[in-house]
Design goal:
Helix content is 48%, strand content 0%. It is mostly helical.
Length: 127
């Protein structure tokens, strides 16, 4: 499922979408909140510049919005429908879920967004 060359591999691991040999982020751990969005300027293997154009990752905000809506709906369904909590508790669970998933959603949104524009190149040869 997560074999090299699939978009899902690049999205979930945060690797370069063109060669999938290197992490796009300076710190691979998204729980280090001070470094959650610090990215390398380019891939040292294939030379892909991650900031394709100025303010490129502003578009990832739309992806982030969709991911946050999905997390919120899932938290509500689990809390209110499956566990049968009160409406107030369900909304508190949404807030808690959004706060806890924040660093992961930030990275996944960027990973998804760059993978919409850059595809894996199986014929790429290392420098």
């Amino acid at each position: 499922m997560l074999k090299k060359g699939s978009k899902l591999n690049s999205i979930l691991t945060g690797t370069c979408p063109k060669c999938q040999n290197e992490s796009m982020y300076q710190d691979k751990n998204p729980l280090h909140l001070a470094n959650v969005l610090k990215m390398n300027e380019h891939c040292s293997h294939c030379g892909l510049t991650y900031q394709i154009e100025p303010s490129f990752f502003y578009g990832a905000m739309y992806v982030s919005y969709g991911l946050n809506v999905a997390v919120g709906v899932a938290a509500f369904i689990i809390s209110f429908v499956i566990l049968g909590t009160t409406l107030k508790t369900a909304f508190i669970s949404i807030i808690v879920a959004l706060v806890l998933s924040f660093p992961f959603v930030l990275r996944f949104a960027r990973n998804i967004y760059i993978n919409m524009f850059v595809s894996y190149d199986p014929n790429f040869k290392n420098k």
